Amino acid sequence: MYFDYLTVLIFASVGLVFVFANLIIASVLRPKRTVTEGLEIYECGEETIGEAWVRFDIRYYTVALVYVIFAVEIAFLFPWAIVLRESLLGEGAAAGLGIGVFALVEGFVFIAILFLGLAYVWVKGDLDWVLTYSAPAYQPPTSRMRAIPTVDTLEGDSEDDSEDAAEDTSTDESEDAA
Amino acid sequence: MGRIAPEIVLTLLSMVVLTWDLVTKGRDSRQVGYLSLAGLAIVGYLLIDQWNGLRNAGISAEPTPVFAMMTIDTFGIFFKLFTVGSLAAVMLFVLSDKRERKHGVGEYYFLLLGAGIGIFFMVSTSNLLLLMLGLELLSLASYSLSGFHKSEKRSAEASLKYVIFGGLSAGIMLYGISLLYGLTGTIDLIEMGTGDGTSWPVGLAAQFAYNPAPVAIAIVLIFAGFAYKVSVVPFHFWTPDVYEGAPTPVTTFLAVASKAAGFAVLLRFVGLLFMAEGVDATVAAYGDRIGMLLAIMAAITMTLGNLSALRQASMKRMLAYSSIAHAGYVLMGLAVMTPEGFSAAMYYLGAYYLMNLGAFGFLLYFEGVTGSEEIDSLKGMGWKAPLVSIAMVAFLVSLTGLPPTVGFVGKYLLFVQGIEAGYGWLVIIAALNSVVSLFYYFRIAKALFLSEPAERSVAPQPILTGFLAILAVGTILFGIYTAPLQSWADSGTASLELVNSAK
Amino acid sequence: MGLEAYVAVSAGLFALGIIAIIVRRNVLYVLMGIEMILNAANINFVAFSHFQGDSLDGRMFAIFTIILAAAEAAVALAIVLNVFHLYDSIKPSDADLLRE
Predict the structure, then answer these.
(1) pLDDT digit string, tens, across residues B10-41
(2) Is A14 helix (H, G, I), strand (E, B) or coil?
(3) Which domain holds residue B325?
(4) CA distance B153 to B158
(5) Residue B73 main-chain phi, psi, to 5 deg
(6) pLDDT category, A171, cuts 50, 70, 90?
(7) Cβ-Cβ contacts under 8 Å for C69 (sequence gap 6 or more)
(8) DSSP string covering B339-394
(9) Which of B140, B153, B201 sits opposite C87 (nearest CB)?
(10) Within 10 Å of residue B495's Cβ, how many Cβ atoms?
(11) How far is A138 from chain B (nearest CA, A)?
């Protein structure tokens, strides 16, 4: 009976190994920064210490939205996968329905439609961290928004306070990674 | 598969349109528009083919539903053709309007087609899940469309109001569906109506005996969702604001296609639950009370719509209130709870298509000329654009319900059914309302022709003018030859297999 | 635990959602209220499905409701963002160009 939980044990240990292995590999591979900005706590480009009521960068919204598309898709794919397996192997509740191949094709049609959505986001430039899309009538008032620094302006600016600098570093890194 | 060919083609079309727009980087959105129109023609052809196939076989519905969910019947095809017609008209509006062309990028057509797919599924199912999904697909596309002019404050505000009201009523409706599912054990309307109460799914009959209050609550909650879609009081608050703020082609779509789709699901819901063949007698008897509820809603809706329309200076807002009033008239046909009443309601929706599309087309035409929605800005324009203005007078006559137009026949049919079902008071209210509506509709005609000819010159818009002329001819032609539209409406109703519920 | 407990929780959630929509002036809270209503319906669906034997309809409905909620939230937030750009406010009462 306890044997039933062996899979759970394996799953948990693989999870643990995965987390710590990645941390160790990262600590070996990543560049060692000794400047102050590099030692700041890094949290997705946002300032980590200060008020909670800061206005987050609008570009997170797009990323979150794209994430939602693919996160919610899973809710459909799990039932689909189970029915597909039962139907193709001929066991379980969906065995006698004879919908195996049909369900397979349907599933891929579903995924293809979702990927059209991804392609749309991609072509419109919403996956680029520095937005390329610009509509003339749609510029937000600068007084309200934090200026979004480009890589070029970052090189020159040095008298900014530390919060901007921390953000700059992270932007830099993400640019390098790209 | 072949039986849902129109749906498949429409879905493929929407993806091709989106891909085309992506590949060409939105350089020429007119191409996308023409592509969409061509695709819609194919969908329309497939639908007519299905309709004829059913009629030639002497049946009104396919015997087995597709995937046990979608019923292919004349009722659904009637509304699908209605939708294809509205979509084509709206796309024509977008294509012919210079200002819309500025915004008229490929997404416009994609969202319209997406809304069309939603309507296709919701009008052809008795399954509440598919109905809800179709309704939401339509709603989501409509929210985005009404805010399509992103840099315009009014458009943004319209979409905000629409999404709040829409989300609220969709939630309320979903909660009602969950209660109904709990009470009956099924999400299929046919099983709900015909279940005999001895085993799951029990159907409504047994629950009416034991739990009348929860059933009533569930049905009222679901009505909230439909009432919002067709903008019936007290779920009409969004209508004037959204109709005024949304781009005019989108307003046209909301007022014509979206509203008709809402009525289609309402007709099917009420019909299958309370009036279909095989429905338990206790449930059918309960239907009369639902009829009374609908009659009261109809009376309040048409009165409020007409009285509010009286004092509007903006033509767009006036047409919004007028569309609320017309929802009240159509609701009369539902309230009588007879197959003939349903047929009259469908006839009226057909009439509504012709005359309201015309009125909104006229609005679009003059927005392009004067840059204003005010009725006063039309002063003397009748002499400058005579063809369009005469067409508009035909639409106005029809909207008021005067002969010899299709609107008159529609109202006549509704009134006859109302009197036969014993709703004399409702017919009197409706007749008084028609008199009231005369005042505000003819303010437009008066501004057009009973003033000094305007100074402004009017640039010709040949496509729109031609389309409006065709609609005007249709308005009068169908008012004289009533048989075709009537037979379509009758065979549409036939597929619901209704029996008389009213005594 | 009986079915009543689930229905009571979902009814409470539904009522809270409605109250949030009516009382709150901030559109984000209104959207949260709508999500609460949808989740109230979801609890109902799953509970009824569990207590009614083999009927899977309710569970299926619940999965689709999750999708609906996500899609609606995405569209609603996009619209709210656009309103915020233009009006510099996310209170529906501040967007008041359209009225009698």
Answers:
(1) 999 999 999 988 888 767 778 888 999 999 99
(2) helix
(3) 280-503
(4) 9
(5) -140, 170
(6) very low
(7) C35, C38, C39
(8) HHHHHHHHHHHHHHHHHHHHHHHHHHHHHHHHS--BGGGGTTGGGTSHHHHHHHHH
(9) B153
(10) 22
(11) 6
Q: Any CB–CB contact under 8 A between A123 and chain B?
A: yes
Q: pLDDT tens digits for B147-199? A: 988 888 899 999 999 999 999 999 999 999 999 998 888 888 888 887 766 66
Interface contact flag, C70 A72, Cβ < 8 Å: yes
Q: Are C85 and A138 inside 8 Å of each other by CB?
A: yes
Q: Is-cis flag, bond preceding C92, omega within 30? A: no
Task: Determine the residue among B160, B211, B318 to mutate to test chain C binding: the one whose Cβ has the most chain C Cβ atoms within 10 Å.
Answer: B160
- What is the C-alpha to C-alpha distance for residues B110 and B116, in angstroms, rounded to an integer? 10
Question: How far is the C-alpha of B495 from the C-alpha of B382, rounded, in Å?
Answer: 45
- What pLDDT is recorded for position B252? 95
How many C-beta neighbours within 10 Å does residue C50 have? 13
Q: Which residues of C touch B161 (CB under 8 A)?
A: 92, 95, 98
Which single residue is written with the structure tokens 């009976």? A1
CA dihedral B264, B267, B272, B278 (to 10 degrees): -130
Residue B168 CA to its chain's centroid (Å): 20
Nearest 5°: the CA angle B129, B134, B139 is 125
Predicted local confidence at residue B108, as pLDDT? 87
Print burial letters for C62-98: b (CB count within 10 Å at least 16), e (below 16).
bbbbeebbbbbbbbbbbbbebbbbbbeebebeebeeb
Residue from C7, C44, C68 whose CB has the most chain B CBs within 10 Å, to mutate: C68
> Is B447:B372 a contact under the CB 8 Å cutoff?
no
Average pLDDT of the segment spanning B92-114: 80
Chains contacting chain C through 3 or more C-beta pairs under 8 A: A, B
pLDDT computed for residue A143 by the predictor: 41
Sign of CA dihedral B34, B40, B44, B49: positive
The mean per-residue pLDDT over the stretch A41-66 comes to: 71
CB B365 within 8 A of CB B461: yes
pTM of full prediction above 0.90 = no
Cα nearest neighbour of B26 on chain A: A124
CB proximity list for B318: less than 8 A, separation 6 or greater: B309, B312, B375, B440
Interface of A with C in 75-94 (CB under 8 A): 75-76, 79
pLDDT digits (tens, 9 = 90+) for C28-79: 999 999 999 999 999 999 999 988 876 788 888 999 999 999 999 999 999 9
Q: Return the domain boundaries, chain C.
A: 3-94
Total number of domains constituting chain B: 1
CB contact under 8 A, B18 and A123: no
Q: Which fold has domain C3-94?
A: Helix Hairpins (1.10.287)
Strands (E), B125-280: none
Check if B431 contacts A (Cβ < 8 Å).
no
Is there a contact between B22 and A138 if contact means CB atoms under 8 Å apart? no
